[in-house]
Specification:
two-stranded antiparallel sheet; transport; two-stranded antiparallel ribbon; 4 strands; 422 residues; transmembrane; L-amino acid transmembrane transporter activity; 15 helices; amino-acid transport
Length: 422
């Protein structure tokens, strides 16, 4: 769920990276160590996908776990292709730069559009997640305004939107950046808490065998798996800020191995606990009277609130960039744009309050595009490999074909599910 901007230690000097901001300028001080880059990369791959991964496994069945590792390997390889693209031209600093070098302005526009759309929908998913979990903690909550009753998830989505609103007005997001940089820690806490519930709560345990394979659920499972590996837009920033660039491949490998281990562990634990009854967010299955459950739930609630402002900041900056020069730096304009963005995401969250299906749509339509199809396509064009018939070319073309198939089928499935539940 994975996606937030660069952590800022000063006004415009990125020091760390959380989730996937690809729009802020990369660090010009190439002093980030191997371990620092590793932590940033692991943070980028650690997001809200950890909550829906058991649901993904339950939807596809045990054998679909193979697809999780397959997508992880493909995403790792496409990450290496991004590195190779950057090695071709030292002027490449961001992900849109790669699209520009490969396909000109159309390529830059395509990459930027996919990035901003993904950020917007993930921010919307945060609101849905907050509404679902708060409604689970405080069921049957209702208030009356002007004689009209409002309650449940919708009420909490609106309240969270109001709480978040002041954070998007801030000029200095450094404090929120450090809070939201806890992606790895939050994921570890949630996994340990859920495991603790199963181990020490006799009413749960690891008792469910589950299904071996569910063909009808494969598109949704693949889409949710892909959502977990959508950090590619920040890889150029990681690469540019690294002290020893030749070690970047090793950093990526370590990040993908550990993140995949975490996702697989959570998927297996959650599926063994609740089987086909597992919710789109596993926190909704947990008994709320247990301390371990409360730790997992409150950890889930805190992170999205901190990440939201960082998520929409690149979108706000992009929209301000479209304005006439005399209006770009006016604080009231920035506040107006940010406020409008929050209100629009609240409306979308109220209209489409389906976390799993929205996440599945993001994974199929945007994550697969940004993390698999675009890196492969850009590399073929930039390297000129598309003119050569070899094992690598065939392999990359196969990956692109599979990505297109998964994207189309997964997007169709997600849209049908959303429409059916409206």
């Amino acid at each position: 769920m994975n996606t937030v901007p660069l952590l800022l230690t000063h006004h415009d000097e990125p020091a760390l990276v959380e989730d996937k901001d690809q729009t802020l300028p990369p660090s010009t001080t190439k002093t980030v160590s191997f371990f620092g880059t590793f932590l940033n990369g692991l943070n980028a791959l650690s997001g809200v996908g950890i909550l829906s991964i058991p649901y993904a496994l339950a939807t596809g069945g045990w054998l679909s776990l193979i697809l999780l590792f397959l997508i992880s390997m493909i995403a790792f390889y496409s990450g290496l292709l991004i590195k190779r693209c950057m090695d071709k031209d030292g002027n490449i600093k961001t992900y849109p730069d790669i699209g520009d070098l490969a396909f000109g302005k159309i390529g830059r526009l395509l990459v930027s559009t996919s990035i901003y759309t993904e950020l917007y929908l993930v921010a919307t998913g945060f609101l849905i997640l907050e509404g679902d979990n708060l409604d689970n903690l405080f069921p049957n909550t209702e208030i009356k305004i002007a004689g009209l009753a409002s309650g449940g998830k919708q009420l909490f989505v609106i309240l969270v939107g109001i709480i978040i609103m002041p954070t998007v007005w801030l000029d200095d997001l450094s404090l929120l950046s450090y809070i939201s940089a806890s992606g790895v820690l939050a994921s570890a806490i949630i996994i340990c808490s859920v495991f603790s519930v199963a181990t020490f709560d006799g009413s749960v345990g690891f008792n469910v065998k589950g299904n071996i394979l569910n063909w009808n659920g494969i598109p949704t499972a693949v889409s949710l798996y892909a959502f977990c590996y959508c950090a590619h837009p920040i890889f150029p920033s990681l690469y540019n800020s690294m002290r020893n660039k030749h070690q970047f491949s090793n950093v990526l490998l370590l990040c993908f191995v550990l993140s995949s281990a975490g996702y697989a562990s959570m998927a297996i634990i959650g599926y063994l606990m609740f089987g086909a009854e597992v919710e789109s967010q596993i926190t909704l299955n947990l008994p709320i009277n247990r301390i371990s459950s409360q730790i997992a739930i409150y950890t889930t609630l805190v992170n999205p609130i901190a990440k939201y402002a960082l998520m929409v900041t690149p979108i706000t900056n992009a929209l301000k960039g479209l304005l006439p020069q005399q209006h770009k730096n006016r604080p009231v304009i920035s506040i107006l744009i940010s406020t409008t963005l929050v209100i629009s995401t609240v409306i979308v969250a109220l209209t489409v309050p389906f976390f799993a299906y929205l996440t599945s749509l993001v994974g199929a339509f945007l994550s697969i595009t940004a993390s698999i199809i675009l890196p492969c396509s850009c590399y073929l064009k930039i390297s000129g490999t598309y003119n050569k018939f070899g094992i690598e070319t065939v392999g990359i073309m196969t990956i692109i074909f599979l990505g297109v198939v998964m994207g189309i089928y997964g997007t169709y499935t997600a849209l049908v599910e959303i429409i059916d539940h409206l």
